[in-house]
Amino acid sequence: xxxxxxxxxxxxxxxxxxxxxxxxxxxxxxxxxxxxxxxxxxxxxxxxxxxxxxxxxxxxxxxxxxxxxxxxxxxxxxxxxxxxxxxxxxxxxxxxxxxxxxxxxxxxxxxxxx
Length: 114
Description:
- With 114 residues, this protein is mostly helical.
- 80% of the residues lie in helices and 0% in strands.
- Helix 4 (38-47) runs antiparallel to helix 5 (50-64), helix 5 runs parallel beside helix 8 (92-112) and helix 7 runs antiparallel to helix 8.
């Protein structure tokens, strides 16, 4: 995850693209989840380039699908506003992934507070 914190290192684009691929597989999802990626992913979604925001949203979606702990942590980190903005102004893929995560967050909220 340290590559994602080094904006001047030139590795952020590549690291996010690789993580997005890995997160689509169960073993990769588990490994990424153990690295406590959510604070960094939320920051990328809030502030990075369109491509990086797209990949971060895809990773977040993979991590949050079926995982209440990640959903809760993402919500506590304030990702909802950034996802709403991304769902309106991101790339087509970013819009889809952001919308999917927002839907997961909404379902989680209903399950927690019926």
